[in-house]
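REVIEWER CHECKLIST
Item 1: Sequence provided? yes
Item 2: Single chain? yes
Item 3: Sequence as submitted:
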Amino acid sequence: MESPRVAVVIEDDPDIRGLLTEVLTQGGFDVRAAANGIDGIALVREHDPVVTTLDISMPGIDGFETAKRVREISPTYLVMLSARSEEIDVLQGLQAGADDYITKPFRPRELRARIEAMLRRPRVQGPAAELPSPEIAEGWLEHRGLRLHPDMRTASADGVALDLTRTEFDLLQELLEAGSRVVSKQQLTLALRGERHSDFVSDHDLRAIEVHMANLRRKLGESATSPRWIETVRGIGYRLTAG
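Item 4: Structure as written out by the authors:
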């Protein structure tokens, strides 16, 4: 019998912790829960969860610092849930390594849907893995020394492996597959959700794309003002640079 998927819940409020545990258990996860960041990090290290939910305001280290430490040891899908809905909090959460940010109170159906959308995106292969040569593996997407293999979930820039989150990897794949075409922020949002069409893409969703793109550019070692690989099309989205 296949082992159940493991999820870790890091939440100091016992009622919300219980609700998250129930929702994830109904979704087929074996749930481990912690009431603070330090214990939550230990659970992530021990159980290698597929999904981790994380509160921001907790005793001891807060959710932002917890997210950074989790990112150092695990590629788990990281979802922040918080009553703090200011834009600066959302940006800090995404910059700390979160894949998604959901404000409280949340709807269990929405949480399940967003987690299932993330699960359709394979986990990213770590940067230390050996990069196959193009002679060994076909299917590479390339642009000016930037290389990505969708199936092997590995990417490199000028031969150096990139340490990307799932979101950053998927954004880069969308741009490489688009070639010289402009990809709008709305299209990128839907791609991350695994959807083709939607009646609603919020300003928060579009701002989140901007943050993820800024993180991706930082890891590529380029800036928006002098891009080597990805250029901004003001008011629309992004495309690969010419050449």
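Item 5: Key structural point noted by reviewer: The radius of gyration is 18 Å.
Item 6: Recommendation: ____
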